Amino acid sequence: MKFSDLKRIIIFLALMIGSSLALAGGMEGGGGKSVVCRDNNHKIISAELLDIWEGKNIYNLNIEQKNDVDSILSIAQNKLTHSLTNPEVSLFRILRRVRSIMMISKPGVILKDVNDAAEVALPADCKLEQLANYVDDNFLIVSNEIWNQLDDLNKAGLILHEAIYRFERDNGATNSRRARKIVAHLLSDFQFTKVNDGLPINIRYCQATNDAGKLKYGFWVYPISNIQGRQMSKLQFTVLDGLFVYSKKTAVIPVKLPWEIPEQSRVFSGGDTDSNFEGNDYISLGAINEVTTTPDSTTRTSYLYLLSSNDPQGDGDKFQISCGPMRENDQDGLQVIVEPKTSDTFNRL
């Protein structure tokens, strides 16, 4: 086994274990929606996956039928391989599970509505109907009537939707809006950018998890300079606010490395995120530096944390940043430790 392969396995071991446990235990909820137009006799005139309809009519994407189901899925998987970090460890196994548990209902069966779409628009004179219901990790039922009206593009889209929404639910999603947006972009001519694209030689990987071990933030950090020569920090994300990043996303924070913890608890810097997919966010770097004194002891709490503008800032959840040692990137993506790991990674980079 190559060291680069071992490195990738180690970095995403927590993700692998989490996905395995979730699939073993089952996750209820979730379902695909379709935009269905019917005539006066209630016969279907047209049916389209909501993901694809939104892609064309809300996100203005170019989505065309060009291949059969297997070919469409293969193209989408190739896109994910060249964008998302290690999809073969997590997402692709869910995709295989989805295909194995799909069952087409008998004619005349109407699926119970699942209210998790959070849709923002619908076409006039047509309705949103339940196309699929992801009952649990062993049972996914699909409407016979609607499925038989779909072309291969929409059938492949439904399979992708169920897999990606399952993956998103495992990471905290409560509705399918983001999953539909991802599916629409995967089925279009939109080009994602690999999340680790353009990393320099010397980098450090940092992350923050919640008490349950779920990854809240994951990012590489490295120094850069602006045109005036001022030293800053550039963050390149794999996970942002609990959501896995599907296309390269960065933020520049006007603080040079190493990051020092200020004497008082506060948000002391921040910057806008930049990405061709979901780039409208603002990242704040803050610090907790508190001393608690009791008659028996004095305890100091000091650590750095991140907050995104989409993260509720009043809930008190500030997850401590933990960083690994400095690593060196070679042309094959191999990362080699170039300095020893210290016990000070919580306090400064």
Please provide a brief summary of the model:
This protein has helices at 3-11, 13-25, 50-57, 69-81, 91-101, 144-147, 152-170, 177-186; strands at 33-38, 44-49, 102-104, 127-130, 132-136, 139-142, 202-209, 215-225, 231-240, 243-244, 250-253, 266-274, 282-293, 298-308, 322-323, 327-329, 335-337.
Number of domains: 2
Low-confidence stretches: 1-26, 331-349
Please tally the helical runs, counting DSSP H or I stretches of 4 or more residues: 8
Helix proportion range: 10-25%
**Biggest sheet architecture:** 11 strands, antiparallel
Evaluate the radius of gyration: 23 Å
The secondary structure category is alpha+beta
State the separation between the terminal residues, measured CA to CA. Answer: 30 Å
**Share of residues in strands:** 25-35%
Instruction: Please state the average pLDDT score.
Output: 84
Number of strands: 17
**Secondary-structure element sequence?**
HHEEHHHEEEEHHHEEEEEEEEEEE
How would you name the oligomeric state of the polypeptide chains in this document? single chain
Give the overall silhouette. elongated
